[in-house]
Write a structure and sequence with these properties.
It is a single chain. With 337 residues, the protein is mainly alpha-helical. The chain has three domains: 98 residues, Homeodomain-like (Arc Repressor Mutant, subunit A), CATH 1.10.10.60; 115 residues, no CATH class; 95 residues, no CATH class. 52% of the residues lie in helices and 5% in strands. The chain is built from 15 helices and six strands. The strands form three sheets. The chain has a two-stranded antiparallel ribbon with strand order 1-2. A two-stranded antiparallel sheet has the order 3-6. Strands 4-5 form a two-stranded antiparallel ribbon. The longest helix is centred in the N-terminal third of the chain and has 17 residues. The chain is globular. This is HTH araC/xylS-type domain-containing protein. One of its GO terms (molecular function) is DNA-binding transcription factor activity. It comes from Evansella cellulosilytica (strain ATCC 21833 / DSM 2522 / FERM P-1141 / JCM 9156 / N-4).
Length: 337
């Protein structure tokens, strides 16, 4: 087993410990400088970055399962505040968001099947698009799919699932067109046991989204940025017309407001020329206190007047963060024009 594998395994067993240069030298028997150089060459990421992300990921896995705060172990971080700050800095989302959403994919163990798959696909994307941000934009523009699960076959085979999606969405195709779509599904989408179930009530409906690990890897390791126009944003609702997607209880007030705004755009009830117009609309609906205009001529989409005292007004940075979070979750996607 080589030095990198030894350290990777050590992290998995000791992620609550402080792992420093001396630890690496003890485990590998070589100098830290030599190890760090080899690690970067083989993995494409610095050892320090991987270490903190993997420790945060493993601790987040624990948080998903603990039932009492006293069981929380923040080590090797000094406090919950330090852990939370580092988490948001590394993954661009609050740790609470990741803990509540089991489908978020954080730092995979290097060398694992999932990591290797992402690495190969990302390299292919970068060869095609050259720029990480263009590759990210392509992934975010691949539409979600949904399908009805047969009551007798809760988890269809991979080939049957792919054939079902292609036939339902694209109809009859030539062999070359069919193979092209299958390649996209197999490389970029979560399939089989990685179904992204968006509907917690009707288990007969499943949603297939672009593999979240690909998006996260482009953002975290390659510095890709989100680049979109407001009129390109679409909700998953526009694919399935599933009302429950807009009213999930786990959505925050802000995320519900964003989803509702984009849904109204999907329906053609409203149009946002730019982010400022969207900001103004969402700000009204996000405010904690609202006063309905008492006039029967106004419908439910009429803007509310804000009560200044006690209101929580929206910051533009919060809106951008929420849109990006919903894009990563798959509840929003891009429709290129």
């Amino acid at each position: 087993m080589n030095a990198i594998s030894l350290v990777l395994d050590y992290i998995e067993e000791h992620y609550h410990d402080e792992i420093n240069e001396k630890t690496v030298e003890y485990v590998t028997g070589c100098t830290f400088e030599e190890f760090a150089k080899k690690f970067k060459e083989k993995t494409g990421v610095t050892f320090s970055t991987y270490l903190v992300r993997r420790q945060l990921t493993r601790i987040n896995d624990e948080l998903c399962n603990i039932t009492c705060e006293k069981d929380l172990n923040c080590s090797p971080f000094q406090s919950w505040e330090e852990l939370s700050t580092l988490f948001k800095s590394e993954f661009k989302i609050p740790i609470d968001t990741a803990t509540k959403n089991e489908h978020f994919i954080l730092q995979e163990k290097i060398g694992s099947k999932e990591w290797n798959m992402c690495d190969l696909v990302i390299r292919d994307l970068l060869n095609r698009f050259e720029c990480p941000s263009k590759a990210l934009r392509y992934l975010l523009s691949l539409q979600p799919y949904y399908f009805e699960v047969d009551s007798e076959v809760i988890q269809p085979s991979r080939s049957n699932l792919i054939s079902s999606i292609v036939k339902k969405v694209h109809g009859e195709l030539s062999l070359s067109e069919f193979r092209k779509i299958v390649t996209i599904l197999e490389n970029y989408y979560m399939l089989e046991s990685d179904y992204y179930s968006k509907h917690s009530i009707d288990v007969s409906k499943r949603y297939i989204l672009v593999f979240r690990g690909l998006i996260n890897k482009l953002v975290w390791e390659y510095g890709a940025g989100f680049d979109y126009e407001v009129n390109e944003l679409k909700t998953l609702w526009s694919v399935s017309h599933d009302k429950e997607l807009i009213s999930h209880k786990w959505h925050s007030n802000l995320s519900q407001s964003v989803m509702e705004a984009i849904k109204q755009q999907d329906l053609g009830n409203i149009s946002f020329a730019n982010i400022d117009e969207l900001f103004g609309w969402v700000d009204v609906y996000f405010s904690k206190q609202k006063k309905r205009i008492n006039n029967q001529n106004f419908n439910k989409f009429t803007r509310y007047k804000l009560i200044e005292e006690g209101c929580k007004n929206l910051e533009e940075e919060d809106l951008t963060t929420m849109i990006n979070t919903l894009l990563v979750q798959g509840l929003l996607f891009l429709q290129l024009r």
